[in-house]
Amino acid sequence: METVYTHGIRVAETLQEQTSHLEKFWLTVTLLGDPKAAFLLVFPFTYFISKRTGVAVVWVAAISEWLNLVFKWILFGERPFWWIGESGLYDKTSQPKVHQFPSTCETGPGSPSGHAMVTAAVWWVVVSSLGSFVYSRTHSLVISAVPYMLYVTVLAAVGISRIFILAHFPHQVIAGCLTGLLLGVTLRSTVPEGRPLLFFFSFSVGLMFSALVLNVALQQLGVDIFWSISLAKKWCSRGEWIRLDTAPFSSLTRDCGALVGLGLAQYWKPGGWSLPWAARALSLAVSSMGLYHVNRLPLPVKPQSLFYKVVPLLDELAEQDNHDVGFGGGHGPRCWTWVRQEGADKKP
Question: In degrees, to the nearest 5, what angle opens at C-alpha 325 toward C-alphas 283 and 39?
């Protein structure tokens, strides 16, 4: 793998040299490609248009992010920003001319790319539904192919941004895209719309339990599952760039909380309240503003156990609130909350 990693560093170095004027663009793209964006941005707007597609987005996002966690624990993928120092291949005279960014220092293993994997899975659900709708109206293969071309463009941009900021090697991005696409195609037809609350609760418990079993099994085999956190702390240029919400269990608690919240929402208010289009649009705007402010709420980072308890609770409440005045099928949005760990300026 040394050859693959070395080539990946050269690619990242070339990207930073040749596209340095696009730095702000790449940082924005990597932010929009964050798996949390599937819950914050993609879900509300798709649910506004189509209830089934919106539910599918949450479903696919949660499963793909959980599977990404499993892959990362098993594959032990390196990240460029720490591999440069750990490899021992570079001295002061041959050091790659690359630098880190605030979004670089993620604490989980690197393979496959979670940004690429979740983006590929979630956006496949969106573009395939949009493509089918466009074709049903136009009967034109050319016009209905436009969403798929945009899909490829988005994936390419997210992948390049991850390489640019030294968060991933190229092969990790490619693996994430292919795996996410496969998941999107597979899960698109298994939307749990109208399922009972017990289904969502049981499924969430299953995801959490399976991850914990794998965690314990790896530790029994002598594997330090927190190895990547140690390396991130060691090689990150600035300590305040280390964020607790990039640790593996953070995504797991978010996914389980979102699924339970979706189940509670469908159980308590399956249809929402019927509202005209104008009211729905206004509700979506208010919802977006609410998202922004809730996203800025600081969460406890010490003790870490409290952080992992608060995240799923807020996800559950957010999912219920969002579904109470549903987006699609003649209903209006209320508020979908996406929680960002505000401790970006603190070490976990």
Answer: 80
